[in-house]
Amino acid sequence: MPKKILVAWIGRTDLKAAAGESAAGDGPVAQGVQADSYDAIYLLSDFPAAESKSYVDWLASRSGAAIHLRSVKLNSPINFGEIYECVVEVLEAIDRRGTQLTYHLSPGTPAMASVWILLAKTTHPARLIQSSLQSGVQEADIPFDIAAEFIPKLLQQSDERLTSLAQGAPDEDAEFGSIIHRSAIMKRIIAQARRVAIRSIPVLIEGESGTGKELMARAIHKASPRADKPFISVNCGAIPPELVESEFFGHKKGAFTGAVTNRKGHFERADGGSIFLDEIGELPKAIQVKLLRTLQEGEVTPVGTSDPRKIDVRVIVATNRTLINEVADGRFREDLFYRLAVAIVKLPPLRERAGDISLLIEALLQQVNDAAVAIGIKHKKLSAGAKNLMLQHAWPGNIRELLNTLQRAAVWSDEETIGLEAIKDAILMSPRGSASADGVLNRPVEPGVELESLMAQVARHYIERALEHTRNNKTQAAKLLGFGNYQTFTNWMNRYGVER
User: Fold this and answer.
1) What angle do CA 495, 499, 500 make, to 5 degrees?
2) From CA 364, how far away is CA 366, in angstroms rounded?
3) Contacting residues for 448 by C-beta, under 8 A, at least 6 apart
4) Three-state DSSP class for residue 132
5) Is 2 exposed, middle or buried (0-12, 13-18, 19+ CB in 10 A)?
6) 197-to-75, 293, 312, 421 alpha-carbon distances in Å
7) What is the pLDDT of residue 184?
C-alpha cells in the first residue's frame, strides 16, 4: 500500500478553528486530515512562527500522522512566483517513491490554490482535494492539463487570470458571518461579494443609509488576500472641500498654512490593503479628476510636491445614491464611475429583506445588552407585543434605525422587559414615512377622493419597483407582487401604462 502524504498551506480559517472560533468549524486542513488516513502531513505557513507551531500542536491532537511544518516569509500571499518557489522546495524534499501525494486546495489564498493546480497537472502530479463546512471534503476534478513550460509565464499574470483556474476552491468566508441574514436576497448578494472579495478589483457598494455598506466593505476586505493589511475607512462627506486633497494624498511640510509637518494621506496609509470611500458621490469634481488619475496610475502626489509615490491599494466605494443617475445628471464623472464600478454590490433596504428583521432584532438587542453596564441599564428582553410591532414597522432608516430604536427603548424602559408602549415611544416617525402615509392613506374624504387615480398611482409605483428589482423579469416581478402568473402581471402593466 502506498504511503499517503497530504501537503497544504495553513490558512486563516485553520488558525481560527484552533483558537476555538465555532464559525470556522475544524478548519479546512483538519477537515481534510480527518477525512482520510495519512502517514505524513507537510504544512507550509506564512503566519508568525508561534501561531504556526501552536496550530501544529492542535492538529497533532487530532491526527496520528507525522506533521512537518515549513515556515516561510512571503512578501505577499498572492505573489505567485514566491508561492511556487516555496512549494516546489518542499515537494522536492519529499521522497516520492511508493507515495500517494495529495494537495489541499482550500486553505490559504486563491493564488496558493492556483499553484497547487498547476503543479498537480504538470511537474509534480498529485491528487487534489477541497473542503467546506457545508459540503465536507471532496476530490477536486480539474478538467484540463497545463504544460509545464507555461508555468513561468502564467505565474507572472494577474490574480484575476489565475484565480479563474481555481473555481472549485472554496473561499474562507467566515468573515461574512458578521452580516446577519437568512433571506434569499441577502444570500445571493453575499455570494456575489465572496466572489468579488478574492479579486483585487474596485467595488462599488450601493444602498440606502443604514443598510450596512461599511460592514460589507470590511467583510470584503477581511475575505481578501489583503486581510492582514490596513483597512482605511473615509467618510467623503465629512471632509471640508478645501482639505480633501490633503486628506486623500497627504502633504509636505509648509505646503499651506497649518501644514507644520509632512503627512501621509489616506491612500498611502492604506498601501498594500484596502481603502473604503463612503459617500463617494459627495466628492468635489476637482478631486474626482485626481482620484481617477490615482486609480489609473497607481500613484499619489502629496500637496506641495511634484514627486509621485507608488501605491498598491484596493478601492471600495459606497453611496446611498444611484451613482449612474448622478453621472446622468452631471454630478459625477462618467470616466471615474466606470473605473470604480468594476464590481457592484447593491444592498437592499431592510423592508425588502423578508425574514431578516427577527434575526436582526435578536442580534442587535444582544449588542445592547453587551453594553448594558457601560450605559447604566439592566439586561433587557422584548415582550411579544413589542417585537410584533417592530416586525410590522417599515424601518426607513434600515438597520441603523433598528439599533437606535432598541437603544432608546432600553434606556427609557425601567423594567427588564421592554413592552409595547416603550417601543412605540422609541420608534421615530420619519418625515418621509409620514408624508407618504398622509399622501395615500390619510386624505380627507369630505372634499372627495379620486380613488381610481390614487390606486393607479400605488399600482404603478410597486410595478415599477418590482421590475427594477428583478431587472425586468416579469415572471419574478409577478411573484413579488403576489400575482398567480406573469400574464396577469402584464395585464396590470398595460392597464396602468407601465413600460419595461
Assistant:
1) 130
2) 5
3) none
4) strand
5) exposed
6) 20, 24, 16, 44
7) 86
As beta bridge partners, residue 204 has 317, 344
pLDDT digits (tens, 9 = 90+) for 257-269: 777 788 899 999 9
Nearest to 231 by CA among 175, 287, 286: 175
The CA radius of gyration of the chain, in Å to the nearest whole number, is 27
Going by the DSSP 8-state scheme, the letter that residue 321 receives in this structure is S
Amino acid at 384: A
Q: With DSSP H G I counted as helix, E B as strand and the rest as coil, what are the percentages for the chain, rounded to 5?
A: 50, 15, 35
As a whole number of angstroms, the distance between CA 468 and CA 59 comes to 50
Distance from C-alpha of 277 to C-alpha of 35, rounded to nearest angstrom: 44
Give the side-chain half-sphere CA count within 13 A for 412.
15
Any residues with CB less than 8 A from the CB of 246 and at least 6 apart, and which? 255, 256, 259, 263, 265, 303
Q: Which among 202, 184, 170, 156 has a CA at the least distance from the CA of 32?
A: 170
**Which among 189, 167, 165 is positioned nearest to 176, based on CA atoms?**
189
Question: Could you read off the pLDDT of 53-63 as tens digits, one per residue?
Answer: 999 999 998 88
Which three cell numbers mark 9? 498551506
313 and 270 in contact (C-beta within 8 Å)? yes
Cα–Cα nearest to 213, from 324, 323, 328, 326? 323
* Strands 314-319 and 274-278, sheet pairing: parallel
DSSP string, 200-268: ---EEEE--TTS-HHHHHHHHHHTSTTTTS-EEEEEGGGS-GGGHHHHHH-B-TTSSTT--S-B--HHH
Q: What pTM value is reported for the model?
A: 0.55
